[in-house]
Amino acid sequence: MNSPLPAGWLGSRAETTGRVQGMAFSEEQLEGMLRRVLIPVEPNPQFVVRLRGRLVHVRGGDGPTLWTMVAIGVGLMLVVAAWMGLALRLILALVGAFGLLSQRRSAGATSRALR
Amino acid sequence: MDAPDLELVRRAATDAEAFGQLYERHVRKIYNYIYYRTGDHHDAEDLTARVFQRALRHVGGFQDMGVPFSAWLYRIAHNLVANWHRDRSRRPVVPLEDHLVLTPGSQHPESLAMAREAGEDLLELVRRLPEDRQQLLILKFAERLSNAEIGQIMGRTEGAIKSLYHRTLSSLREEVERKQAEGRSAGLGEHG
Known about the structure:
By secondary structure, chain A is mainly alpha-helical. Chain A is built from 4 helices and no strands.
């Protein structure tokens, strides 16, 4: 950064005492400079209202917490396991039904052959 | 009469409206603090939202240990800003043209430009200070807090804050003078 602090901005004392630009100045003058630079800033009113709505009506609106994620994960696993159990039972039932059918067919064919 | 912060804090864990009142009281100060620490309005909005979301999640666990609720919020803000700087690993840039107040009587365009430039220079020097000194100056000037209040936020005694403040002013003054000397020698180099 190349731009120096101009003497006029340092405060009236530096000018009225006839000091040369850039000479030492007091802590009070520095405090005055800081007061002029570090002024309070206001947030956008729309942002303030929107955030209040999110906090008060949605109670956070910050997405799910870690425990919520864990609960959702465990719930999903249980649902998948339950579906897999059901699917296995269905497959077993189908295989059993096919087995019975083929057994009956083969029994029918044997009795016909004996007659 | 408005309810004191502590009473609202006790209700806030279950009463959304109580938290809303706390939010209304403190959002501007927290935003102001974060704005000067990040130098950007969008980042300040994002981090302010995160401060209050975190506060909402943990307000039930807030215990009255003699530290005001505002100090608790400032500490959350301080931690989030520190993480933000760590994540980004960059120096903040404050868009001064948005808010810089100019000295009375400096209405001439050239004076305005000089004052603006000087303000930018000073803020740049403030931003080069260690984190705790930046925090102290922002809380003192932008937030207009007393040494005792700053001490509660920074977890130090009033005396320690006073001492840190004087050390900060002293080092900042040296930096300003060094900057001026550099500017003068650069000017002489250009003209000579």
